[in-house]
Amino acid sequence: MKWLALAGGLVAVLFAAVVFGPAAVPLGELGHSPIVWQLRVPRAVLGMLVGGSLGVAGASLQSLVRNPLADPFLLGLSGGAGLGAVTAIALHLPGSWALPLAAFAGALGALGLVFRLGLVGGAELDPRVLLLGGVAVGAFCAAVTTAIVSLAEASELRNAFLWLWGGLSGASWDTVRVLLVYVPLPLLVLFGAARPLDLLVLGEEQARHLGADVTAVKRRVYLAASFLTAAAVATAGVVGFVGLIVPHLARSLWGGRHRSLLPASFLAGGALLVAADTLARVAVAPRELPVGVVTALVGVPLFVLLLRRWTAY
Amino acid sequence: MDSVLILDVTDVTFRYPKAGRDALRGVTCAVRSAELVAVLGPNGSGKTTLARVALGAHAPRAGTARILGRAAHAWPRRELARVVGVVTQHEDNLFPQRVRETVLLGRYARLSPWGAERAEDHAAVARALARCDVAGLADRWLWTLSGGEYQRVRIARALAQEPRLLVLDEPTASLDVRHEMELFELVRTLVEREGLAAVIVTHDVNLAARFADRLVLLSDGAVVAAGAAADVLRRDVAEDVFGWPLAVSSFDGRPQITPLRRPS
Q: By Cβ atoms counted within 10 A, which residue in A166, A180, A208, B55 is the most buried?
């Protein structure tokens, strides 16, 4: 029933994303309109992949660091990606791939740094140090980013600012193809870690005694979730709140078992981002809001509602 | 029922990396099936470290720690989880979870990574819930349980592992009299009726003396006394270990200690 509702919602959201837009396309011509096939469909698919990735990354990271506040960007990746992107903009790197690649490189740089910080005593990943290291690396990157932006020209500044708030306007079939090849691998790694993640939520010591290979699972989950986030932030900028709110929503409906929680977070994250993006395109047409603004505007009230339910237990 | 040697710790010495001194010094103890052993000692005496080394979390510097004849730290975690069930001192409870769900996690080591739970897994969960008298709570959220109920649910999860050895690290900390007694009675019953081997690490010296078959008294990383309660809880030994004047009396044939007020 819940799955049916989720699937129904997803179909409705995807349909709306294809039908609505600044340019009116009559329903009868949807099937062969270039606006639909070259712009709206790839954009919806990209939104699905990015939102889904953020949902799954958020859910698994929350369980890994055992902190309901964790979100894919808490571990410093958004800072690194932002720094990469703004550097690309400031240096006027040419080509449509320069910005996403620079953002991806920045995210990977932050990932490596935080991972190295989180390794305590040689092999063991300490989630507390990961969290603190992520916040520190993120803050440092944000400072450098702001320094670059403050020295940039006004037009560049607007571009950088808009990019930092996230958007799917760069969507094309090429980006979709790249993500379709890239995303399944980390996704499968996380789905494969579903059972040990169930145990990890109890704490590392108890998880070990129940039979989980905690050291390996922590590394796998951290790296896979981070690679998903890096791809998401490189193609769509820093889309906040999806990775925080979607897992909580999914937990309250599907419970704590990751075999249901992770797929549900993927579908719900995708649906939420596609819906938010449609709103971002239509609300102030012909102009566009950064989709991160919409996810925050929708996400915060939802989150507050959820908080009230949580504290009512 | 023939008793089987399950846990065998011989002359174990252990030191944490970077520590200046040994946390365990020549510790020897054994646990057999159908036997309840209590590990006692003041804070920092090495109780938890002993449990960690005995269960293979750390390899000893010298001596051996064996479970069913195999070096404890050489057991793969999944295999070990089918032999030893542990209720740790702390556990996180951050995300909503129901009692039945959490007890089902005890089956992890007996499932294939991709396989779904089978009928026998659900049967084992039902049995474990019944044995710990928490079947009526199966559909409750963990958050709504009292401290005593929560501990019994955690023991049920360990029993769902179908272990031969049950290890409880300070299971009665912050429980009231009734829940404390219920917990010790439960473990005693499991040991007597089902031949389970059990180890309780506890600060509750008097309950340990009444329920355990044998006591192991640790001080400063070494075993000061081990054996029947009457041999271990002698006044001079206990006063020395706990660093406080005590009176030792007898109840039901077991020694009981009473800490004395400091003379003014």
A: A166
What residues of chain A lie within 8 A of the CB of B105, using their CB?
198-199, 202, 210
CATH 3.40.50.300 placement within chain B: 5-83+164-259
Domain residue limits, chain A: 31-311
d(Cα A204, Cα A206) in Å, to the nearest integer? Answer: 6
**Chain B closest-CA separation from residue A20 CA (Å):** 38
> 24-83 in A: which are within 8 Å (CB) of B?
62-63, 66-68
Which residue out of B98, B102, B108 would a mutagenesis test of the A interface target, given it has the greatest number of A Cβ atoms within 10 Å? B108
Token pair 């096939």: residue: A37
Nearest residue to B109 (alpha-carbon basis) of A60, A66, A196, A193? A196
Please determine, for the modelled complex, whether the ipTM score is greater than 0.85: yes
> Comparing C-alpha atoms, which of A100, A87, A103 is closest to residue A147?
A87
Token duo for residue A192: 């494969």
**Chain A residues touching residue B95 (CB < 8 angstroms):** 62-63, 68, 201, 251, 256
Which of B14-22's residues contact partners 24+ apart within 8 Å by CB, and which partners?
B14/B49, B14/B53, B14/B58, B14/B60, B14/B61, B15/B61, B16/B49, B17/A121, B22/B61, B22/B221
Tens digit of each residue's pLDDT (9 = 90 or more) over B133-188: 999 999 999 989 999 999 999 999 999 999 999 999 999 988 899 999 999 999 99
A43-70 residue pLDDT tens = 999 999 999 999 999 999 999 988 888 8
Q: Which of B203, B215, B253 is nearest to B31 (CA)?
A: B215
- Assigned CATH topology for domain B5-83+164-259: Rossmann fold (3.40.50)
- Homologous superfamily, domain A31-311: ABC transporter involved in vitamin B12 uptake, BtuC (1.10.3470.10)
